[in-house]
Amino acid sequence: MRATFERRVREQVARHLRADPNADHCKIIDIQMRQERERLERQALEYEDSGQDRQAELIHTLIDDWLPELARELKRRR
Q1: DSSP state string for 2-40
Q2: For residues 41 and 63, is the Cβ–Cβ distance under 8 A?
Q3: What's the mean per-residue pLDDT of the chain?
Q4: What is the dihedral of CA 12, 28, 3, 56, to 10 degrees?
């Protein structure tokens, strides 16, 4: 699951930078992280609504722990 999100974020950042090589790398990453957070929050709500609390908890862990870590890693690699 993490690999899927990470790949999508990396692809989106690369796409934006190809379109505008002078774009602010960190700003693009922040925007992508915000979009991923929103996507994951919606998914967590869907799990909660369907009684899949364990899955929702996993998603919240990704949001709270992993997304900030991924953002820092992507910003360092620039």
Answers
A1: HHHHHHHHHHHHHHHHHH-TTS-HHHHHHHHHHHHHHHH
A2: yes
A3: 91
A4: -110
Domain extents in the chain = 2-77
- 25: amino acid identity, one letter: H
How far apart are alpha carbons 64 and 28 in whole angstroms? 20
CA distance 56 to 42: 10
In the chain, the amino acid numbered 76 is R
Its pTM stands at 0.81
How far, in Å, CA of 56 to CA of 41, rounded? 9
Token pair recorded at residue 60: 């919240």
